[in-house]
Design goal:
This protein is of the alpha/beta class and 375 residues long. It has two domains: 4-242, 4-Layer Sandwich (Metallo-beta-lactamase, Chain A), CATH 3.60.15.10; 252-372, Flavodoxin domain (Rossmann fold, 3-Layer(aba) Sandwich). The chain is 29% helix and 25% strand. A seven-stranded mixed sheet has the order 1-2-7-8-9-10-11. The protein has a five-stranded mixed sheet with strand order 12-13-14-15-16. It has a five-stranded parallel sheet with strand order 18-17-19-20-21, sandwiched between helices. Helix 6 (201-211) runs antiparallel to helix 7 (231-242). The longest helix has 15 residues, at 263-277. The termini are far apart. The mean pLDDT is 96.
Length: 375
């Protein structure tokens, strides 16, 4: 795909990856993705903002060459060093020998370990600017843990455009590029937030506060559509999703169970009864019959959970592990956790569940409850 001018003097020079279906091992990408790189020649000096995944380098380089001679590139802004954005950096620096890397200190360390050499970058701190000449400058906004420690945003004030790397992106490939031209991709936008940014809500809110006062006409992320129709609406979605629910006056407990013959289910109901008798709001759920998203949303708002499973072949059952495997994206520190289950002869499941809950930062203070057959 050829370059596309976004605003005066700012071009998309990235690559499309419509065939991608799994990203970073853990994410579905039903609509493929894009690797958005940007070339800025709005001033006297040329800058490239991020590169692309290495297999797409030739396409990226051709796009750059259609606009400028790579030897005329003065700066490569590295907002984030994940390989889908930095994978082409080493090759591009060979083709653009006059370019200086611009990044923060954390990013420099990652680049050194990716390229196995130092690139002598221009190190920038939060609020620093880079003069491109002609009255055009870039301002840098540190946004750590969105979603790596090295992340920063780049703001081109004279064009009212903010380059946010992964932040506010989506795995959604459409060659129409802009949010007002592509089909509805709200599901992909929300799914991207849930998988990548949900664990970093505190940092999401801090970054949103930092850029709230900027004059924004366009937000240019590194994946998915470029946001120009109402960029602040996307920011407000992130703020909504990252804001903590208002805590209720009563404590709440979720009791999850997977039961082969009803014995672990009976334990779940009794645990619920006991908690209710102490004034706790209790919800009991069969993990094999409840939608995953509903369970995750409830867990995030609850004060504690109890998870029970029958023991089959010396292990907890698959629906329980499926639920627990999706909790790493939540902030669970301080929530109470407990494990229980009925078993026939070995009974390993409750201990295995308790160990996993501890690994997820739940406070597991009681020994797992194990009951042989019928409670």
């Amino acid at each position: 795909m050829r370059p596309v001018e976004i605003v005066e003097g700012v071009y998309w020079v990235g690559a499309l990856d419509p065939q991608l279906r799994v990203f970073d091992i853990i994410m579905k990408a039903d609509h493929g993705t894009t690797y958005n790189s940007y070339l800025v020649k709005a001033g006297e000096k040329v800058a490239v903002v991020d590169t692309v995944k290495e297999p797409f380098y030739e396409e990226f380089l051709e796009n750059v060459r259609s606009l400028v001679d790579p030897q005329d590139v003065s700066y490569v802004i590295v907002n984030h060093t994940e390989p889908d954005h930095s994978g082409s950096l080493g090759r591009f620096l060979r083709d653009a020998p006059n370019a200086r890397v611009v990044c923060d200190r954390n990013c420099r360390n990652f680049i050194r370990n990716i390229l196995n050499r130092d690139v002598d970058p221009i190190l920038v701190q939060d609020g620093d600017t880079l003069d491109l000449g002609g009255g055009v400058e870039m301002r840098f906004v540190h946004a750590p843990f969105l979603h790596w420690p090295d992340t920063m945003f780049t703001y081109l004030e004279q064009r009212k455009i903010l380059f946010t790397c992964d932040f506010l992106g989506a795995h959604y490939c459409d060659d129409r590029l802009f949010d007002d031209l592509v089909d509805d991709y709200s599901h992909a936008f929300e799914y991207y937030y849930l998988v990548i940014f949900r664990p970093f809500k505190k940092y999401v809110l801090e970054a949103l506060d930092k850029v709230q006062g900027l004059d924004l006409g366009v937000i240019a992320p590194s994946h998915g559509p470029i946001l120009r129709s109402d960029p602040r609406a996307y920011m407000e979605k992130y703020r909504e999703w990252s804001s903590s629910p208002v805590p209720g006056e009563e404590k709440s407990l979720l009791v999850f169970y997977a039961s082969a013959y009803g014995n672990t289910a009976a334990l779940a109901e009794k645990i619920g009864e006991g908690a209710r008798s102490e004034g706790v709001k209790v919800t009991v759920m069969d993990v094999a019959a409840t939608e995953l998203g509903l369970m995750i949303d409830r867990i995030e708002a609850a004060d504690g959970i109890a998870v029970g499973s029958a023991t089959i072949n010396g292990d907890a059952v698959e629906p329980v592990w499926y639920l627990l495997s999706h909790l790493a994206t939540l902030n669970l520190k301080g929530k109470v956790g407990a494990a229980f289950g009925s078993y026939g002869w070995s009974g390993e499941a409750p201990k295995l569940i308790a160990d996993r809950l501890r690994g997820l930062k739940f406070k597991v203070e009681e020994e797992p409850l194990r009951v042989n057959l019928v409670p």
